From TrEMBL:
PANTHER family: ACID PHOSPHATASE RELATED, PURPLE ACID PHOSPHATASE. Residues 31-204 form the Calcineurin-like phosphoesterase domain. Keywords: Signal. It comes from the Bacteria. The keyword Calcium does not apply. The keyword Signal applies. One of its GO terms (molecular function) is acid phosphatase activity. This is Calcineurin-like phosphoesterase domain-containing protein. GO terms for biological process: polysaccharide catabolic process. Coiled coil: none annotated. Residues 1-23 form the signal peptide. It holds the Pfam family Metallophos. InterPro entries: Calcineurin-like_PHP, Dockerin_dom_sf, EF_Hand_1_Ca_BS, Metallo-depent_PP-like, PAPs-like.
Length: 403
């Protein structure tokens, strides 16, 4: 008879709560955010705005390069006429933007007031932060501001955190951009488990889960290797020390090609500067059209789950993924209550996919079946074989994590 040691407090938490990994500051249920950048103020941008409205996004984070030479007033009028003057629409300063003189600082400051927040006095700086509906946004200025990011995330209690800025590092995009934002911004956000949203390169791409941005290290617990290639590219994990990056720069200005990490189809490149970090790429080489990335937080009422998809203005979905958030790393399990169970066939408890180790992939299987009645045991996350996937099964997974 296999003995599993479970701390009493953890066991009580997962038996009495309906959702796993509860946070002191969760996002609103099914909160949908649209991410775009590099728009201009022409017909393409109007089509993207219409898409955002039709997809029922509740807030937009525009990742810089607003009007180019089309005029800031035209750009603002397009946003307000399509989405409404009180719609939550915030942005990051881009290299083609005049943050203060073109009135963007005043525009976004007014947006913060309209959604019930208190902006800083004076002009809104291009590094600013706000929390809305349980989401924490940290917007960084061009060319990096790691000390500001650190000050905003170090003591933050929000489960879901988003870092947003315009520019890139060469290895964090697939065009020809140079190292402009600086690695400290990326690594500080990763340290606190914040999703990293960028634009600047006029295409779309998304990484797998990374445990080092600068070293291009893919998280092996989320993406186990098969023939040297990290798998499960559409199942992401965020936690202290791990996150992912995306570039969403198809807001309407132009569409560029894939200059790095060939081939133009998955798994993309594994060579120097690539390391198979890319999960999805959408450029002119993939016949890209303009569009937006949509991420829904607290998806289906599961506080630590988010779902994302990129949709173009032709109605095609070209990327879909799930994000699981654990804002505390798996704790060290001490002696506590003893739970007995008989695993079937000698399978390691917590090993849902039977690959001989208990890792993040098994957690995702458990989460996808959470609160369901099942009849196939551990392969669905029912590790104590009682016919239901519940919090006790989570604790069994936790006690065997990394085994």
């Amino acid at each position: 008879m296999k003995k599993i040691l479970i701390p009493l407090t953890i066991l009580i938490l997962f038996i009495t709560n309906a959702s796993p990994l509860l946070s002191a500051d969760p996002a609103a249920v099914n909160l949908k955010v649209a991410f775009i950048g590099d728009s201009g103020a022409g017909d393409n941008f109007q089509a993207v705005l219409n898409l955002i409205k039709n997809e029922n996004a509740q807030i937009v984070m525009h990742l810089g390069d607003f009007d180019y030479d089309d005029g800031p007033e035209k750009w603002k009028q397009m946003v307000d006429a399509t989405l409404g003057t009180g719609f939550p629409y915030l942005g990051a300063d881009g290299n083609h933007d005049n943050w203060d003189s073109d009135g963007y600082a005043a525009y976004f400051k007014n947006k913060l007031s309209q959604i019930g927040l208190t902006p800083p006095s004076g002009n809104l700086p291009s590094s600013y932060a706000f929390a809305w509906q349980g989401l924490k946004f940290v917007v960084a200025k061009e060319d990096g501001d790691p000390s500001f990011i650190e000050s905003q995330l170090a003591a933050d209690n929000h489960q879901w955190k988003i870092c947003a800025w315009h520019k890139n590092q060469t290895y964090m995009q697939l065009g020809n951009k140079s190292n402009e934002q600086g690695w400290p911004d990326y690594e500080t956000c990763r340290k606190y488990g914040a999703i990293i949203a960028t634009a600047h390169e006029h295409s779309y791409q998304r990484t797998k889960t990374l445990t080092s941005m600068e070293n291009l290290t893919v998280d092996s617990s989320a993406h186990p290797l098969l023939n040297g290639i990290p798998q499960n590219q559409n199942s992401l994990l965020v936690a202290p020390g791990k996150s992912f990056v995306f570039v969403s720069g198809l807001g309407g200005a132009s569409i560029r090609n894939q200059d790095r990490c060939p081939p133009a189809a998955y798994p993309y490149g594994g060579g120097s500067g690539c390391n198979y970090i890319w999960a999805n790429v959408y450029t002119s080489d993939q016949q890209a059209k303009y569009g937006a990335l949509f991420i829904t937080f607290n998806a289906g009422g599961i506080q630590n789950k988010a779902t994302g998809y990129f949709k173009n203005i032709a109605g095609q979905i070209t990327d879909q993924f799930t994000v699981i958030n654990s804002q505390a790393p798996p704790p060290t399990v001490s002696a506590g209550v003893t739970l007995s169970l008989q695993p079937s066939g000698g399978i390691l408890p917590g090993d849902a996919n039977k690959d001989g180790k208990v890792d993040g992939v098994d957690y995702v299987i458990w989460l996808n079946n959470y609160n369901k009645s099942v009849n196939n045991g551990s392969v669905s996350g029912d590790f104590n074989l009682n016919g239901k996937v519940d919090g006790v099964d989570y604790v069994i997974w936790l006690n065997n994590y990394n085994q």
